Amino acid sequence: MGLGELASRDTPAARLDPRAKVVATLAYVGIVASFGRHELFRLAPLAAYPLILAALGDVPLRPLLSRLALASPFVLGVAIAEPLWGRSPALLLGGWVVPGGAVAFATLLAKLVLSVSAALILVATTGFDAVCAGLGRLGVPRALLTQLLLTYRYLFVLSDEARRMVRAHALRSPDRPRSTLRGAGTLLGQLLLRAFGRAERIHAAMRCRGFDGTLRLSQAWHLSLGDALFLSAVTALLAASRALDLPALLARLGGIS
Amino acid sequence: MSHHLVAMEDVHYRYLDGTPALCGVSFTLHHGESLGLVGGNGAGKSTVLLHLAGVLFPQRGTVRVGDWPVTPGTVAHVRRSLGMVFQDPDDQLFMPTVEEDVAFGPTNLGLPPEEVRARVETALDRVGAQHLLARPPYRLSGGEKRAVSIATVLAMSPDILVMDEPSSGLDPASRRGLVDQLRAFEHTKIVASHDLDLVVEVCRRTIVLDRGRVTADGPTREILARGDVLARARLEPPQGLRSCPRCGAVGDWHLA
């Protein structure tokens, strides 16, 4: 647990200014989303950004993949209908006619993988608190950042609490270690009530130490030459993949039509 | 300027679900005193502390801390002079790193960054936790979390240190470390606990709470030797004040 903890290591990617990485990631996700439903191949060059940043940040693959898998049900739910709509042929691949729906499905999946991994790599090279501080410097409302930071902090506590409840339930129902749907409702309700109690206690503890609604994050930052280089490289990549059809250009250069 | 530091006068409080928590609690505390607040589960210890910190307000009666009556309008002043350490460190430690957590209070007081840094260092030094500076709080052990929780409050330089069950969940070595630290603090202290051995070592004065009422108030060693009062409050005399099971000696035989 805690992809953000990777960011405490001293890597070239971790040394970049959080604001630069936040801006780059936001722009990247925007550009990835801007491509059309069937422009699968035009997304390919964009894979360079997460790959290079992950390499610079020495981000291990396994935790990234497990978190990608966690996010996938949401997009799969949206994308799964695509093959049903578009049955008209859209692509010839080695003699196979690929229907438009399948291409749209693959395109959505590729967009998911690219944008979610960019966000994950941002956290893994920057740390969640620095990402929030960066967002704060870029004008995101304080209340939202406080919510984000506290949610991230108490995710552990809440998941521990849920695990303890499920275990306690399992230990007292040996024949049926998994909860029924009705039982799960009760457990979830309990978890919600406990979360309310916890939230009240945390709020009291915060107020006792002078909390007035704004979380002050102490970060002294300055943009360096490295940040400028990083931002220009990202801008170049994004502009090139948006303006030019790089895979088609490459194919033409290679003499394939 | 009042001569006493903390005063509760005939405080009544009933929780939303109707449970009466405090039924006329009164006491006053002077500068430099150390008070143990003892009682069984549900006796009202935590409720008293929440009133002192201005988290709850009395439905009848008054609470004063320093020169201020504790009301919604004065809590900001009250909390500058009174530091509260909550029972569960996970409630107290909410920032991404130990350093930021200890800096949270001083920063909210509006202190300049150099002063905040100095306070963080001193506070962590006091509890022997400087080496935890860069760690995320949720990764610490129970004893480390407790030490850092206390540092977060010390960093605000309170006049009064208030603690709810500080020794709960600690192993013997961590508990010993805590007792030694508490004995070394020259703050005015209020410690709510049913760890009576801790109270014997740390507090010179003790108040026994039983179902929302003060049933005894006086020097710790006298109060905690009164078996009848303790039994009614669902407590037992601490080991340190019992007679020796082998030779029958009374007093500090266990320390000899």
What's the helix and strand layout?
The complex is a heterodimer of chains A (about 260) and B (about 260).
Chain A: H1 12-15, H2 18-34, H3 48-57, H4 61-79, H5 82-85, E1 89-93, E2 96-99, H6 100-126, H7 128-137, H8 142-171, H9 181-208, H10 225-243, H11 246-253
Antiparallel strand pairs in A: 1-2
Chain B: E1 4-14, E2 20-30, E3 34-38, H1 45-52, E4 60-65, E5 68-69, H2 75-81, E6 82-85, H3 89-92, H4 98-108, H5 113-126, H6 142-154, E7 160-164, H7 172-184, E8 188-192, H8 196-202, E9 205-210, E10 213-219, H9 220-223, H10 227-232
Parallel strand pairs in B: 3-8, 3-9, 6-7, 7-8
Antiparallel strand pairs in B: 1-2, 1-4, 4-5, 9-10
Helix pairs in contact in B: 4-5, 4-6, 5-6
Describe the protein's architecture and organization.
The complex is a heterodimer of chains A (257) and B (256). Chain A has eleven helices and two strands. Chain A has a two-stranded antiparallel ribbon. Helices cover 68% and strands 4% of the residues of chain A. The model of chain A has no long low-confidence stretch (mean pLDDT 84). The longest helix of chain A is centred in the middle third of the chain and has 30 residues. By secondary structure, chain A is mostly helical. Chain B is 34% helix and 24% strand. Chain B is α/β, with parallel strands linked by helices. Chain B has one domain: Rossmann fold (3-Layer(aba) Sandwich). The chains are: A mainly alpha (257), B alpha/beta (256). The interface between A and B is medium-sized, with 28 and 33 residues.
